[in-house]
Amino acid sequence: MKQPPVIRFLDRTTPPHIATLILLAGMSAVVMNMFLPSLPKMTSHFDTEYKIMQLSVALYLGVSGVLQVFMGPISDKYGRRPVILFGLTVFLLATLGCIYAPTAEAFLFFRMCQAAVAVAMVLSRAAVRDMFEQDQAASMIGYVTMGMAIVPMISPMFGGILDELFGWQANFWALFLLGALTLWLAWADMGETAVKSGKTLTQQFGEYPELLTSPRFWGYSLAAGFCSGAFFAYLGGGPFVGSVVFGLSPFWVGIFFGAPAIGYFFGNMFTGMLAQRVGVNRLVLTGSLINAGGVSLSLAIFLAGYGTPLSFFGLMTFVGLGNGLVIPNATAGLLSVRPHLAGTASGLGGAIMIGGGAALSALAGATLDESTGAFPLLYIMLATALAAVVSILLVLRRERRITGSI
Q: How far is the C-alpha of 146 from the C-alpha of 26, rounded, in Å?
């Protein structure tokens, strides 16, 4: 059993304080969704089509997924701290590029560069696993992401307000200021948590097969990937449903859009309270079922002809609740399959989750138009939610074979 680490806030010689980990994780969340209510105005500003500007979600997620394949092994070799500081610096430069981009193509390029901020989320989770054992790590990740859940709950609302008051660029100035604060806090408080491997990068990447041949790693990764896939599809299609299908203003899209984060907050809170007592597997299964149940009920209401903004966005709360139970517990599970490869596992697991999310976000945006309403989005979300249930059931079956119990 690991002894709890000694932590002193703003002391770079000790592991990071939970407040720092929360801000690192939250920074990734706010970058992902704060500007989404501005997509219709950004489409007009750059004189392009909505589906082009919607790629700012899919491309960001895609690059983030690719980067996570590399940042895990790199952080296992060089440490969590220098990789986080480098990634946040790149993010700040890319954010300035987004603000001053002259064309939609230039904006999308810098938006992809913003994905460097993914190091903050991935390596904050790896740092938790460096410090704690599996169930306690799940509990701590739950508390970290519970705090992080507040960010996507309120950031679209503030994004909508900033858009209406100052224009869409105000969202990116806000991201720049938050990024600068996060970089300073990471520099001042982020003590190193990883034991450097001493291996070359080639040797580090050569350890990927050890993870890729583990059924439990795949089960946890796919459970997290498919469950969060429902949310990423929502990120890609939700603004369209709010603004085009229901005719909401950017302010009200921002207000409604944060609904899943309410559920995500409580899901992570329950994880923090229950993970050590109940275990990660049961919580992942419960969360996957809640996620699927919320999407199913929303689809049933639309099929019956009674879909409204309140029913659509309100039931997304269950998607958030399910993700709040699944992601921290599945993450702790996949990080614990091979504890000596925690950074590599965090990066690869995140790449699977984010890469799939990028594809689903693009698919949702491409299949929606005024004639389809919200149906393509809901069908995509339901399919991925059900796949998450199947994935964790396969993990449970594997666990029974290994230990004879759940």
A: 10
Burial label for 90, CB within 10 Å (0-12, 13-18, 19+), is middle
Q: Give residue limits of the domains in the chain.
A: 18-191+199-403
Residue 197 near residue 73 (C-beta atoms within 8 A): no
pTM for this one?
0.70
Each residue's pLDDT tens digit, 62-85:
888 788 778 777 887 788 889 999
pLDDT tens figures, 334-374: 877 776 676 677 777 777 877 777 778 778 877 877 788 88
Residue with token string 């583990």: 214
Superfamily of domain 18-191+199-403: MFS general substrate transporter like domains (1.20.1250.20)
For residues 42 and 135, the answer to whether their CB atoms sit within 8 Å is no
304 contact partners, CB below 8 Å, separation of at least 6: none
Cite the beta strand spans of 266-362 per DSSP E. none
Place of tokens 């992401």: 145
Nearest by Cα to 28 from 70, 52, 60: 60
Q: How far is CA 270 from CA 143, 274, 282, 325, in A?
A: 9, 6, 12, 7
Q: Which of 262, 261, 288, 287 is nearest to 274 (CA)?
A: 287
Distance of alpha carbon 122 from alpha carbon 188, whole angstroms: 19
Helix/strand number for the chain, H first, E second: 18, 0
Q: Which two tokens stand for residue 155?
A: 């950031």
Count CB neighbours of 227 within 10 A: 30
- DSSP secondary structure letter of residue 338: S
Nearest one of 126, 151, 161 to 37, comparing CA atoms? 161
